[in-house]
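Checklist before submission:
- one chain only
- standard amino acids only
- sequence pasted in full

Submission:
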Amino acid sequence: MNKLFFDTEFTGLHQHTSLISIGIVADNGKTFYAELNDYDQSQIDDWLKTNVIDNLVLTAETETDIYSEKVRFFGSSSDLKNVLSLWLTENFEKVEMWSDCLSYDWVLFSQIFGHAFNIPSNVYYIPFDICTLFKMKGIDPDINRERFINHNNPDLKHNALHDAAVIQICYNLLTAPE
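Returned file contents:
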């Protein structure tokens, strides 16, 4: 079973938040990164503008090839559903999803497909999070992830693909044989 590490960026910590971007890093090296053009812009505050919106990198000219090692998608939520479904089913037999503080991430991931019952059948329905893994290892789950992995470029934080890669490195460090 492949492990996929994912992160989302969204318009706020509230019930009616909307997805801005999603980044996925697979344990086999493949990546998926999407930015949406139909998120609720009325929910963008100064913090989100500076820390999330300013870290977006794709444009309408971005080409999507689901068979490439590094998939990039820019478009609508409804198109994302089709592209992500195809990427997941064409590239992986079975996957489990790992995130960081996944309460919002998993809801937003499920929402891409309409609801949790519509996620692709090769995606294990129980998600996992590294916060619990930190706690189980006796490490404060609120630890700064970049410091934990000795990452030297925290300026990329809040880009979903960067954050997914950080989650994967944290997972690898936390599960390495002692």
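Reviewer check: The mean pLDDT is 93.
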